[in-house]
Each structure stands twice: as structure tokens, then as C-alpha cells.
Amino acid sequence: MRNLIQLIRPHQWIKNLIVLLPVFFGGALLQWYAVYAGLITTLAFSLTASSIYCLNDIIDINDDRQHPVKRNRPLASGAVSIVQGYILMGLMFILSMNSTFLLPSHQVETASVILFYWLLNIAYCLRLKRYAIIDVCIVAFGFVLRILAGGYATNIQLSKWIVLMTFLLMLFLSFAKRRDDVVRMNETGHAPRQNTIRYNLTFINQAITITASVTLVCYIMYTMSPETIQNFHTDYLYLTSVFVLLGLLRYIQISVVDKKSGDPTKVMIHDRFMQLTVLAFGLTFLFIIYVLKNIQ
């Protein structure tokens, strides 16, 4: 049982909390309907992602056996059979689709987005992940689909800025993750992924810098846009840009100096600086839109 749980990677479910972004940026945290629908959609996406993890490990089983860390995964180590992997993959997806029936409304739209995400990632696992740049774009687009599903489920219209920032931020994190692969390839002479040979440190470093810069500029433009000011009735949100800058700089430090950007989820779970930065950002944002605007 422990190996089966390890195969679906529940520790990675934390990344699916991005589904709640429409609730957070939509100022709907005090609306039980929106929070409930967002949490159900988060669960549905987590189960779907687990289904894809099973397929990914089945396809990569031979490569994982050559990897110093991934060879300990349940399938690569032989603790779980390939047949069990396929069964678990199907079960996770069925549970995901069934969970959408718990939504109060927009069940079909939300389930359709999740289904599209599942099919896209099957194509990613089977073929598309072999192509450099395309692979990170698909990963980033997967997070856009998460917030689209969150928007449908909660009946909150997404700002174009939120969609753009989500894609850019996840593209930044994906390039940082690929940097870890390039470093390992340079040290061992073995490419962890088939497309790693199409990356090098010069390219990756420039890509990280570009995406981080554009993400920050995009966020600043979001906070100062007339649409945002009118929506939240405050023009002080630009102050939260400080925490976005700190978070990006810290992650670049983890990637370039510490060389530990291989798993963004583990970074968020273990890095105290990142945790405090995200917490400070969230609390400041909430204070501005729920408290400060009412005392101006």
C-alpha cells in the first residue's frame, strides 16, 4: 500500500492549490460557495495529476532505473508492477471525474477542462515531452487549465492578467527544474530526459532570467491596471510586488547557487524563506483588499 501511495505522489497535490487562484484574486475567500467549489476542483485535479504520474512512471521506467534518485520509485524499483500502475492510473481518473459531480454548478465545463488536461498530458508523456521548449510550455499551460477549471467551478471570471501571470510563473519554474537536469547531465554525462541535450546552462540561465523579469513586470502591470483598481477599489496592491520580487530572487538563488530546483514542491515545503515570502504576500494582499480599502 505504501508503494501505491508513493506512486500517486500525494505530496505533489500541493501544486494543485493554484486552482484556488480565481477565489483568491477574485476576492471571494469569504464566499463559502466559491471556496467549496474550488476545493472540490482542487481534489479532482489532484486525482487526475496522480493518474498522469502513474503513466509517466510506466513510460519512463527504463530511464528511471538509470537515475540515481528516480530508480527508487515504486515502478522502477519493481515494488509495483506495470499492470498495477495502469489499474491505479485508471482508478485515479475515474475518481477525478466522479468528484466533479460534487460541484454545485458548471460540472460539465469543469470536467471538460480536466479531461482536456488529462488527454494533453497523455500526449505529453507519450511524445511531446521529447521536444525542448515545447515540454515546458505544456507544463505551464497545464497550470493555466487548472485556474480555468477553478474559474468555471466557482463562477468567477478570470482576469487576463491572472492567466498570463500563471503561465509565465510556471514557465519560470519549469525552466528552473530543467536546469537541475542540465547540471546533473554535466556532472554525470547522462541526460535524465531525452530532451535535456537540447538545453545547456547558458540557455537555461537566460530563459530563467527572461521569464522571471516578464513575470514581475506583468504582476506590477496587473496591480496598477484600471481593471484591478476598479475591481478591488484600491490602488495599493502594487506594494505586494516587493514579495513577488523577493520570491523570484530567492528561487533563482536556489536554482543557480544551491542547485536544488529539481522539485518546486519540495522547495516550497522545506525552504523557510519561500514560505515566509508567500505568507507575507498573501497576508498583505488580503489586508489591502479586505481591510485597508474599508478604512480609506
From TrEMBL:
Q: Where in the cell is it found?
A: Membrane
Cleavable signal peptide? none
EC number of the protein: 2.4.2.45
Give the stretches traversing the membrane.
12-30, 36-55, 75-95, 101-120, 132-152, 158-176, 203-224, 236-252, 273-292
Major subcellular location class? membrane
Q: Name one GO molecular function term.
A: glycosyltransferase activity
Q: Which residues form a coiled coil?
A: none
A Pfam short name: UbiA
The record gives the membrane topology as: Multi-pass membrane protein
Q: Which terms are listed as keywords in the entry?
A: Cell membrane, Glycosyltransferase, Membrane, Transferase, Transmembrane, Transmembrane helix
Q: What is this protein called?
A: Decaprenyl-phosphate phosphoribosyltransferase
